[in-house]
Design brief:
Helix content is about 55%, strand content about 5%. It has about 160 residues and is mainly alpha-helical. A hairpin with a 5-residue loop joins β1 (about 120-125) and β2. α2 packs antiparallel against α3 (about 45-70), α2 packs parallel to α4 and α3 (about 45-70) packs antiparallel against α4.
């Protein structure tokens, strides 16, 4: 209490650093999704990309409380309000991206899993003749049936 009175008497106001550090930490949350492209371990990224915005919004709220509870000491009520809105929007976006990126579409659940037999299909071979998966698995021209078939999907034409 004495510090606040002494500061207002001298006219010095302190910057609200919790507000700006909180905004920086909140912005780093969505940017941390790019760490996977730099070789950072992928298992830790989901928690980092969600944890950083939560910590950042907490710091921004501390800065907002400082600006409104002690306006004589900490300046920037309008800036604190705007930074709080931006930080909360970034947190909401991070939560939405976290939710959407972990959602597994129904089509993927219906796809064959490792160890399951693939459904029969027919595709042209390299010379344009249709070949079905069952033809390959049953063997042809008196040769024994193979144990497995390797499917190679590629884009373009060779």
């Amino acid at each position: 209490m004495l510090d606040c009175i002494a500061m207002t008497d001298t006219g010095q106001r302190r910057g609200n650093y919790a507000l700006w550090v909180g905004l920086l930490v909140t912005v780093l949350g969505p940017l941390s999704n790019g760490l996977i492209f730099l070789g950072f371990p992928a298992a830790a990224i989901p928690s980092i990309s969600l944890l950083l915005p939560i910590i950042g919004v907490c710091l921004v709220l501390i800065g907002l409380l400082r600006a409104f509870r002690q306006p004589a000491v900490y300046k920037g009520k309008i800036a604190a309000s705007l930074v709080t809105v931006v930080s909360v929007l970034l947190l909401a976006g991070s939560i939405a991206l976290f939710w959407v990126s972990r959602h597994i579409p129904a089509e993927v659940l219906a796809a064959p899993h490792v160890g399951q037999q693939a459904p029969d299909f027919t595709l042209p071979d390299s010379s344009g003749h249709p070949v079905s998966l069952m033809q390959l698995l049953s063997g042809s021209n008196g040769s024994p049936a193979p144990k497995a078939v390797l499917l190679v999907f590629y884009r373009g034409y060779w």
